[in-house]
Amino acid sequence: MSDLQIGLIALGVLLILVVVVFNWWQDRRIRARMREHFPEDENDALLGAAKTSSSMPGERREPGFASMAQGELLPDDEEEVDHPLEAVLDISFAHPVPADALQKAVHGLSDVGGKPVRIFAERDGGGHRSRLRAGESYVSLQLAVLLANRGGPLTAIEWSQLWTVAQELIAKFEGSVEAPEQDEVIQRAARLDAACAELDVQVGLALRPEEPLPLSQIQQITRDVGFMPYGRHLAWMAESGQPRFLLLMDGAAVADLQSDSVSRLDLLLDLPNSPVDTQPFSRMAGVGRDLARRLGTVLLDDQGRPVVAEADGKIDEQLAEIYARLESTGFVPGQPRTALVFS
Prior knowledge:
Elements: H1 3-37, H2 47-55, H3 68-71, E1 86-98, H4 99-106, E2 111-112, E3 115-123, E4 128-129, E5 137-146, E6 148-149, E7 152-153, H5 156-173, E8 175-178, H6 182-197, E9 202-207, E10 213-214, H7 215-225, E11 228-230, E12 233-237, E13 243-249, E14 261-262, E15 265-270, H8 280-295, E16 299-300, H9 312-328, H10 336-341
Antiparallel strand pairs: 1-5, 1-8, 2-3, 3-4, 3-5, 6-7, 9-15, 9-16, 10-14, 11-12, 12-13, 13-15
């Protein structure tokens, strides 16, 4: 190596040292000026919290969040976004938002256009929440909207309504929002709606007395047969406590009747929302025939034709195939997740 090359290398090293020293000197001068204008204080809301967290990791103390330490003990909530069934808007806040303020901002947000909306949050310091808890504060929020139900697929208008809610939240609390493109969401909704439509099977049977009967008489007979109250309906219950099929009076739930007499009874087997049964139709038809005998009428199918007992087994086989298809696509009959879409 020549003297010239050695000299150039030495000069390069010297220049690097000069730059490093200069940057160090500049940094010290800037820090000194900052301390003059913003002296550190143990009670400072920002610097104090930073010092505490660096010296004692895992223990954060911030003004206004008195119950934060208790929140550390609470495990994550198990309920999460169901990505195949829901579209999600992810909201990140610039600063942690107290639960009470966030609750007021999202109060009343339960659906858009008949599509249920669920709210999930990430607690400041860590922790997944499927509901907001008093005393906590949150750094992010998820708005999850159902893509389809019996009201049809999620529409562009419904998706825009949820977007508006998200925009209002980030304007109020400062933050940002991320979400899939609208066209992608609408296409997903249409595909889910089409897939579920092929599995959405309901079977009905009807009884039409020759003349209207007193409601009190109908209520007594249905109790004797074995129907039990279920929400606003009367239902024939399974051992699991789930309804196998419902009883409608004049096309309505018993709680919604506006008359003291009844001219028509309907038995409704809603396959997605009833537990799997090896004889779903035979069971309902048997109860229907018992009712028909007590009311002095005939059991009819949904076309108004008398139901022939010899056909019960064949219909059971057809419904068993629908049950199997529901389960194979992830919709277990009678379960809450299935009810979310088939409602």
